[in-house]
Design a protein that fits this description.
globular, 202 residues, 10 helices, lipid biosynthesis
């Protein structure tokens, strides 16, 4: 029994440690842009990094935040199998959103969810990206795009990979919704800023 649980524990720890690397904070400081936590919403994710005006640093943050989920998932799958890979995805998401190094205040998990889905089931990941782009371009709201993508992802996970992945993706989606709770409040009030807008929001 312990031999069965140990790989899952290792996968969770690996995912958390990788996910908790604050690339947004590291890159903005390296680029001389200051502490990203003092800018805009104070979030360490790519959306807030974009508020610095440096698109290259924001793009690099997005890619690295996705890769910090991909890496532990692929490693866990190679050594311990598919169940461990799914656990690593959850660990990476928790690490990004609640990094111990930053007082458990991290990002909102969109890039990490993209990386997780692409690594766990690439068709689901591509559909997530497609839905995000569709909503982002038509409604001009990053948060609404993320929430819509996350809400539909479990359905596609079930269709393409079955019940186990759907359960994991549902968990990730619920965490993403929790991280976007302030955005949801603004969406309901009609005060959520649009992409490129001047309002400071998470």
């Amino acid at each position: 029994m312990a031999a069965d649980i140990l790989p899952l524990i290792l996968a969770a720890v690996l995912g958390y440690l990788s996910g908790s690397i604050p690339f947004g904070l590291i890159l903005t400081r390296a680029a001389g842009l200051g502490d990203i936590r003092a800018i805009g919403s104070g979030n360490i994710g790519a959306t807030n990094v974009l508020r610095t005006g440096n698109k290259k640093v924001a793009a690099a943050t997005l890619v690295l935040d996705a890769l910090k989920a991909v890496a532990p998932i692929l490693i866990a799958r190679y050594f311990w199998g598919e169940d461990a890979a799914r656990v690593a995805a959850i660990g990476a998401f928790l690490g990004h959103c609640f990094p111990v190094w930053l007082g458990f205040k991290g990002g909102k998990g969109v890039a990490v969810m993209i990386g997780s889905l692409l690594a766990l089931s690439w068709p689901v990941g591509l559909i997530f990206c497609a839905v995000w782009l569709l909503i982002a371009f038509t409604r001009k709201m990053s948060s609404l795009a993320a929430l819509t993508s996350a809400a539909t992802a479990p359905i596609f996970a079930y269709v393409f990979s079955g019940e186990r992945l759907a359960v994991v993706v549902t968990g990730l989606a619920l965490l993403l919704f929790f991280q976007h709770r302030e955005n949801i409040g603004r969406l309901l009030k009609g005060t959520e800023p649009t992409i490129g807008g001047s309002k400071k929001a998470g």
